[in-house]
Amino acid sequence: MPEAPLLVSGEELRTGVAELGRKLSAGYDDGVVLVAVLKGSVVFLADLVRAMTITPLIDFLAVSAYGHGTGRVRLVKDLDTDIGGRHVVLVEDIVDTGLTLAYLTAELAQRDPASLAICTLLDKPARRILPAELAFVGFEVPDVFVIGYGLDFAGRYRNLQLLAAGDLDTLAADPDAYVAQLYGGSDPRLAS
Ligand code: IMP
Fold first, then answer.
1. pLDDT reported for residue 66
2. What's the CA-to-centroid distance between 24 and ligand 1, angstroms?
3. Does the pLDDT at position 69 exceed 80?
4. Residue 139 to residues 11, 12, 86, 154: CA-CA distances in angstroms?
5. Is the Cβ–Cβ distance between 6 and 190 less than 8 Å?
6. Is residue 2 within 8 Å of 187, Cβ to Cβ?
7. Alpha-carbon gap, residue 90 to 101, rounded angstroms
């Protein structure tokens, strides 16, 4: 049975997200708009807002890739909120090449927010193509494919309270390859 090595445990996630919540609460006032990118950021956002001691507004964007591997994206769901004149934090699951982030920050900046900062759960700097200014980072990860805590492969693994490193060839051959290990509870390191 293939095994996906543990990257970040449930306990480490709780501690890291709580710390980000504290930093955001210290840096912003009530009414800051947290813009989360569907779908990968949803689990992170849900824990992040509950770790905050101020009252943020939340809204969602969704992007879709134009073609596989082109790095080009387009907006497929827009915000409901007018962010003009507001302080905005873009909440991402992971910044990898930086292409999605560059597109989104350019798009949001056009709407004249009072400020725009990035909060990402994960930073994967090894594959960066475009520079990214990341104000709030939970964890830096190596050049591996990350699953769990909102991050998926073919829709699987989002609801795991941990992050693991999946092998892309193994997942391409069988998207459920790690289900038995990660949901079976047989590995004590993966207990949250
Ligand atoms: P970027 O445009 O290359 O920075 O990547 C943006 C998106 O690709 C992220 O928001 C994720 O949805 C996805 N992505 C990048 N790396 C991973 C990974 O390791 N696991 C799961 N999704 C990833």
1. 78
2. 23
3. no
4. 13, 10, 27, 23
5. yes
6. no
7. 9
Q: Which atom of ligand 1 is nearest to the CA of 99?
A: 2
**87, 128 Cβ separation under 8 angstroms:** no
Mean pLDDT for 113-122 is 98
Structure tokens at 86: 């507001």
Q: Which amino acid is at 160?
A: L
Q: How far apart are CA 168 and CA 172, in angstroms?
A: 6
- Given 47, 96, 123, 152, which residue is catalytic? 96
Ligand 1: does its nearest atom lie under 6 Å from the Cβ of 94? yes
Which residue's alpha carbon is at the smallest distance from atom 15 of ligand 1?
A: 96
Token duo for residue 96: 């990898």
169 noted as active-site residue? no
Provide the pLDDT for residue 190. Answer: 62
Residue 180 and residue 4 in contact, taking contact as beta carbons nearer than 8 Å:
no
pLDDT, mean over the chain: 94
